[in-house]
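Obj: model holo form, ligand = magnesium ion.
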Amino acid sequence: MSRFERTAYHLLPAIAYGDAAGLPVETRSAEYIANTHGTIDRLLPTTENPFYKGLYEAGTWSDDTELSIAVARSLIKANGFDMRAIADEHVTMYGQALQITKPNGQTVVRGWGRSTTTAVQRYMEGVPIEQCGARDGAGNGIIMKMAPLALWHIALETDHDEVYRDLDSITTFTHGLPVARVASRVHFDMLSYLSTRRFDAREFTDFAYWSALDHQRDVEESGTDVSQALSYLIDCPQPTTQDILDHTDGKGFYVPQTLAMAYGAFMAHNGQFAPSVYEAVNLGGDTDSTGSIVAAMTTIKGLEPRDIPRDLTKIMKLAELQQLSQSFARSIKTARAKID
Ligand SMILES: [Mg+2]
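Output (holo structure tokens):
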């Protein structure tokens, strides 16, 4: 198995693990988590998530995994990036996810972000793809699902200008603000860095900061929130939990803050799987998203069998995730054979 196939093979279970690790404390603060749970270091049942009402077994995962599955399936089906295939797989997932009708009559999908939900509903109503996105969308809905797409392009050595075009399309499908496009591009650059270079914290930070400056220049009216959010890492290449909390909003729902928290958690433990994922979880905020983002980063950096936590077996529908990951790995292999 080539390196990329191996990464693809682990990717969806890893994302689901990070998602499930954070789900029990999604929206809670670091302080609340510390007071209630001490330090979380394993999968817990979900009992008090505001979107998942009731008791859910340890290993339950949410939209971060659902939408990463949608992206992976679209790549397999279309044999590469195809915006319509991606949108269609979102619709399939929308149909499978639990839908809740609010008192005002609005239908929402359990755990899905507002921008993604609205965009998929518009797409189903026949709105053209490029007009579906919420104009004010700047959440982390792309960062949390883009790892399969990033890995595909990294493995196939796609020209970066083409990658950025694809990323702009998938981003604007749901998230309209220019800052969201910058964040998607920066995150691709960093996943590409992790896949192709030996991780060095200082180099990683410099690279992330310069990538943010570059894309902020190229994407009109995108502001400087991404570079500003990441800048603290230049002075803290191995941040403590307190460093991360002092220099971010401790929530991570706004995508520049998502990156700042996820990268901080990753760097705090040199991108080791479980320590980095649980660092993100214990920071609080959008813990299932930051947890799954960090999990994808560490997988793309390269997982050793000893890095895989024992309680991975608790992950809901693990066999299905492994099967999908396997066919994703096979698709990458076939596509690579064509370019070699
Ligand atoms: Mg979620």
